[in-house]
Amino acid sequence: MGAQASSRRRRHAPAVPDTGSDSLSVDKIKVIILGETAAGKTTLFRRWMGSPLDTDYVPSTTASVGAKLLRLEGHEPVVFELWDVPPQSFAGPSIFARYFRGAQAVVLVFSLQTPASWRVLPTYADVARLEIAAAETFETQSPKSLPVVMVGNKRDCIDKDNRQEQDAARSWCSDNGAAYVEVSALAGDSAAVLNVLKLIVTTTNPSSS
Predict the structure, then answer these.
(1) Does the predicted model carry a pTM greater than 0.85?
(2) Region entry Disordered: which residue ranges (predicted)?
(3) At 61, phi and psi to the nearest 5?
């Protein structure tokens, strides 16, 4: 019990970078990025942040947080507060609950190299919805209304002759009000990578009118 308490003290939610956005009076959207080990979600996070990419794979063990300002035609500027949450966080409810607090959207990432790996993501989505609802993030909305984008990453490694799992993932997204996109974060698919954030903007704020 003592060791567990000590572990909880050590693993705390990281601080969010200051973008100076308050002076610009822009909206903020907190986005939680979830996925299994080796899905490529940290590479996706680094692409959004404009950070150098690691060529040698090292599993993430702590959450990474960044802020990105996005200006989209027809919408007010938005600052994305991006949280790359490692799957190990799901081993400790009190830990990942802090990551989810205040979240307004979830990005679920799986690898198209192992397309069946998408099947764990609905569980991640359910946990996120429950935790966010418990934290009363959405006071007037049901947890089901939480914007969710499922990302099939590593599109450059896809088996084009075997898309049964991708079709199943698309079907789940269609049935559960989630968006589905395929990208290659490592190969430099810039437009598709940015489109994930654009989908969140259009879902949470359809227009600036």
Answers:
(1) no
(2) 1-22
(3) -120, -10
